[in-house]
Amino acid sequence: QVQLVESGGGLVQAGGSLRLSCVASGRPIGSYTMGWFRQAPGKEREFVAAVSWRDGTTYYADSVKGRFTISRDNAKNTVYLQMNSLKPEDTAVYYCAARRSWATSTLHYAYDYWGQGTQVTVSS
């Protein structure tokens, strides 16, 4: 079992930045692909970014490409999501997820473990 706890969310003005952290416990995340998803009110959960454990390959949703950066520190069992140039449409609850595979996936059901989420609100 892997437990995931997100932090770093909050209220920020459009154009601002936030860094989300996801700390894992229970097992080392070195052999898990890690991802970030988000869910806005009334919308389905959507893929944001993922990083493979095998070679560090990253993958981003088109809506965040060039603005968000996912990274991982296996020694700290932590994954980060640096979010720059935030827009009001980025407002959502952001979830960290872990997948028992080297391959990244944009599908939420492909992930095995989930955190409780952290709220990000971007004001215009």
Keywords:
single chain, 124 residues, mainly beta, 7-stranded mixed beta sheet, 11 strands, 49% strand, globular
Structure description:
The chain contains no helices and eleven strands. It has strands spanning 3-7, 10-13, 18-25, 33-39, 46-51, 58-60, 68-73, 78-83, 92-99, 113-114, 118-123. The strands form two sheets. Strands 2, 4, 5, 6, 9, 10 and 11 form a seven-stranded mixed β-sheet that branches. The protein has a four-stranded antiparallel β-sheet with strand order 1-3-8-7, with no helix packed on it. A hairpin with a 6-residue loop joins strand 4 and strand 5. The relative contact order is 0.32.
Describe this structure in a few short sentences.
Helix content is 0%, strand content 49%. With 124 residues, the chain is mainly beta.
Q: Number of DSSP strands? A: 11
Helical stretch tally: 0
Radius of gyration: 13 Å
Report the principal-axis shape: globular
- Return the string of H and E elements: EEEEEEEEEEE
Biggest sheet layout: 7 strands, mixed
Structure class:
mainly beta
Strand content: over 45%
Q: Indicate the percent of residues in helices.
A: under 10%
Average pLDDT for all residues: 95
Instruction: Report, as a whole number of angstroms, the end-to-end distance.
Output: 40 Å
Spans of at least 5 consecutive residues with low confidence: none
